[in-house]
Amino acid sequence: MTTPPLEREAYDPHTVQDRWLPVWDRLDLYRAGRAAGAEKKYVLDMFPYPSGDLHMGHAEAWAIADVVARYWMRRGFDVLHPPGWDSFGLPAENAAIKRGEHPATWTYANIEVQAESFRRYAIAFDWSKRLHTSDPEYYRWTQWLFTRFLERGLAYRKSSAVNWCPQDQTVLANEQVVQGACERCGAVVTKRELTQRFFKVTDYADRLLDDMEQLKGSWPDRVLLMQKNWIGRSVGAHVDFVVGSETVTVFTTRPDTLYGATFFVVAADAPLALSLCAPDRLAALEAYREQVAAATDIERQATDRPKTGVDLGARALNPVTGEQVPVYAADYVLADYGTGAIMAVPAHDQRDLDFARAFDLPVRVVVDTGAEDPAVTGVATAGDGVLVNSGPYDGLRKDEAIERIVADLEARGAGTGAVNYRLRDWLLSRQRFWGTPIPVVHCDGCGLVPVPDDQLPVVLPDLRGDALRPAGTSPLAGATEWVNTTCPTCGGAATRDTDTMDTFVDSAWYFLRFCNPDYLDGPFDPEAVRQWMPVDQYVGGVEHAILHLLYARFFTKALHDMGLLDVTEPFSALMNQGQVILNGSAMSKTTGNLVNLGDELSRFGVDAVRLTMVFAGPPEDDIDWADVSPSGAVKYLARVARLGEDVGSLPLSDVRDVAVDKVVAKTVDEVTRLVEVHRLNVAVARFMELTSALRKAHDAGAVGVASLRDGVEALAVMLGCFAPYTAEEVWSRLGHDVDGGDSVHASTWPSADPLLLVEETVTCVVQVAGKVRDRLEVAPDIGEDELRALALASDGVVKALDGRAVKVAIVRAPKLVNVVPA
Ligand code: ANZ
Ligand code: ZN
């Protein structure tokens, strides 16, 4: 796509950028601790993966977070806003295989490119806090943390059927499987039985759920809902059925429907199906299991799929009714949820009803909801109602019935109240190279030995090119010299674990390291963490609503329990920015539907792109780059620069213009409130209005020069959070010595004089000993105390008193104050 060069105005964004960037570098403006002693604010964007140069999505996310960070700096807070990279991961490895290099080469080259882009994009980073998760100085501590989790049983090994991506040749976490396909490459995911490592996230299910209360209102509702659904707490009961000689427990959320259980189903792919099966049904079951195994998860999860299954020729004894019901194996019951077996209540569960109709099984209503008979309508009734056909429980309401039946089951030892979670433990091991090596040694004599702290980090060996090609085992297994080691315990021959960690482990704690990334005595500096945590504003895409945020919350809680952290939640507030799209659809290299950030920056300049990003709409909304006007932003910024030039060259004077003062105060007041609630697009609209008002006042003859200067100055400070280069230009045109350190980015956010915000004012006469000494413009509803204070501080009163004490000040708000000297 070729675009005509932009017509250069007297204001050239590139000249302005080149002028100020080196000055800022020298002034080192954004170091955390600059406002030591002031209240702290920690602003964080979800750190980037170094996949190439920054793209439009980055430009949006960082434009937003940077407004927040700079705003807090201007408000006098001590702000931590650190840069870093999530620099382990598959793309580096794939690139390395293609180019015959080490993954570090590609990774660190990209990091340098992105770092330089961030610098030019004028993100107010404290560069002294920079970190990369693939540095041995960082992953040393990821390994250290892993061994702490091991010690506490929060990391463990088990053999399990895991999601396997045949394309990437690696295991995937449940979270990385999207509708049966690999989240990364889209290949259909298969299952494999492998010994893998897990973090025991499930131990924290309740707290992860309950603590979301604290986040309500400051995290997006939909993120909280997604986390809640992902954790998926279901309250119900375990009920024991007897099948032949075996007791088979089911999980149900509806123990009140026990009298309506007309059949029993086990997951076809669970071992239980085989053990319950009558000998003469085995052949049929085997055939069915093959059919199930061949189906993809996508097919199995489709709800409109006809129900299939096999009668196992067995009977299950209902512990409450004493009834014997037929047992089926079917694929709509999942092997890894609950107990992998259910009591089927077709009248009140749609899946069971579909199955009952396919297999001609009885449908018995046991909760009268007032709806029509499910056997006739084909629609199960799930609602509240009164129990029927339920023996001694008839007439009870659903909730009472659940309570009574669970109590009776417990009394008879046939069941208990139970809570079930959808959440699974976090599978953290990966059979890939470019990740944090798992710091464990396998010794024939001693078993699995964690690498002691003083032998960390276990540094990755130097493998490159074809040696990294995946072959079902980790490429690390091929590094014989690296693999063969000595046992830290007995000193005998031993081998290293060849798996690496999921990169989500690296990002589950990076916000802690940022507080002092140079710390040598632990993963994070306890004092620095006490000072900066929790993150006050986290900004990132909604694609991380579940995984990363859940893992970071889990790590925070686990580290809290180890006594290493005070906080229990890492991120006090979260904002999900929208996406930058083009002509209604997502940008993608493959379809060519792409806007290149570098091109936009060369054409329009940094400030115009930043301003466009926040002016396009509320931060949460998607931005269609086809609908916005960066050239409009350039024009606006040129207007601001010209205003700065014109007002800056007026002769200095004290003359004020109340009308101008009022417009400025009103804008300051509104913008302050708008930025606080992240309505950044509306704030920009206010800047534009203010700019026009100041221009008009200037062109009308510039009476109140002092007011005009103050107005342009206030505009520069506020706009500086959005368009840092132009604001600095204006600031310097007003006479500030930026080179000498008087940068707009070291200035203070303007405050709005409340008196100027009042639409109508009343003149208050101030007397001293009965003589008029001053007149004040005050709000008609001003309070007595406030008016007294104003009067006593007024120039006329101070002069008249001439040091004498005040006996009494008689206040008749809002029109009169009479000060009586002692
Ligand atoms: C009897 C019943 C009657 C049920 C009724 C529901 C309604 P949630 O809320 O998702 O936890 N179930 C249990 N384990 C299952 C598995 N492994 N695969 C498929 N379904 C399973 O769902 C719990 C309900 O889902 C359980 O309660 C069980 O069906 C079914 F009127 O038991 B219910
Ligand atoms: Zn040993």
Structural description of this entry:
With 822 residues, the protein is an alpha+beta fold. 37% of the residues lie in helices and 19% in strands. It contains 29 helices and 34 strands. The strands form ten sheets. Strands 10, 11, 12, 13, 14, 15 and 18 form a seven-stranded mixed sheet that branches. Strands 2-1-26-27 form a four-stranded parallel sheet, with helices on one face. A four-stranded antiparallel sheet has the order 6-5-9-19. Helix 3 crosses helix 4 (103-120). The longest helix has 20 residues, at 680-699. The model is unreliable at 1-9 (pLDDT under 50). Bound molecules: ligand ANZ and zinc ion (ZN).
Small-molecule binders: ligand ANZ, zinc ion
Q: Give the uncertain stretches in residue-range form.
A: 1-9
Spatial separation of the terminal alpha carbons: 81 Å
What's the oligomerization state?
single chain
Q: Kindly state the percentage of residues in helix.
A: 25-40%
Residues in β-strands, percent? 15-25%
Structural class: alpha+beta
Average pLDDT, rounded to a whole number, is: 94
